[in-house]
Amino acid sequence: MSSRVIAFAALLFTAGAVGAQTYPSKPVRILIGFTAGSSIDVVARILTQKLSESWKQPVIIDNRVGAGGNVAADAVAKAAPDGYMLLNSNAGLAISAAFYRKLPYDALKDLRPITQVAAQPHILAANPSLPVKSIRELIALAKARPGQLSFASGGVGNSDHMAGELFKWMAGINIVHVPYKGGNVALNDTITGEVAMYFPGVPVALPMIQAGKVKALGVSGSKRLGALPNVPTIAEAGLPGYEVILWYGFFAPAALPKDIVAKIAGDLARVLKLPDVQERFAALGVDAVGSAPDDFGTFVKSEIAKWEKVRKATGLTID
User: Fold this and answer.
1) C-alpha to C-alpha distance for 22 and 158, rounded to whole angstroms
2) Are 276 and 106 spatial neighbours (Cβ–Cβ below 8 Å)?
């Protein structure tokens, strides 16, 4: 290797190190592809407040709603790789990669995983007037009334949509999907009875369950929630093998330097360990994670592969 090449490589290394040491030197924008007040938005605002305090720079949440979170993901995929526009996405990113026939970006090539910040189950929440008290009774009712019951989602291709589709397929029932422009609207129409059920994330569902505005029939994870100990998992309540986890994670444009990626991941990991953050997460029924970038990248690949298997089994695709 020539001395000129070595010198150039050293210059790049030094520039990268300086970049990480001085990052961020101006406001950072976090794009979220879902509405304000949604589960991911609630969690993100806890984290961005702490990041802003740590970085001594404004961290601004930008809700770019549309196409199941793909409008926001595409914007970040095409953004300058300087760390000043990041994506906070969820399991819908992997679902989109598996189910959409065509996307304007490639989740594995155009985005760099930074860290998984949290995980939580969905809750199968039903309108209180629906004449069922359990998952088994719901499945029996749906079989007795094919095509007459409906389930809401915050949009086509979202994690809540696929939680419903997987439930429908595994139970062998015909329930009608009704997509909304946001989870808050979907939950509201479940409360009013416009739709029979919804699979919201825990942060938005829990207050409505506690207030008696919807009834919780099951939890989509592998274990019961501490906040709802009497609500069984959907798997134990009548649909063995059913599991859907709603995870949240941060991404950057693919070319963002590794040292800046590592800094953001490390700073988020420290935020997630703060006692007041852990207390707020616990109250929301959310588990903090804080994975390393490479580990999160491996996890995202496994999630895409998992949903591709579901796509092949169900035959469902999204245009």
Assistant:
1) 36
2) no
Rounded to whole angstroms, how far apart are CA atoms 92 and 5?
Answer: 43
Contact (Cβ atoms closer than 8 angstroms) between residue 124 and residue 153? no
**Cα–Cα dist 195/208, whole Å:** 16
What's the token pair of residue 30? 């976090």
Reported CATH class of domain 123-219 = alpha beta
Tell me: the pLDDT tens digits for 58-70? 999 999 998 889 9
Backbone angles phi, psi at 112, to 5 degrees: -105, 120
Q: Which CATH number fits domain 3-16+23-118+248-314: 3.40.50.2300, 3.20.20.150, 1.10.10.10, 3.40.190.150?
A: 3.40.190.150
Are the C-beta atoms of 99 and 66 separated by less than 8 Å? no
Answer whether 0.85 is exceeded by the pTM: yes
How far apart (Å, rounded) are the C-alpha atoms in residues 174 and 143?
7
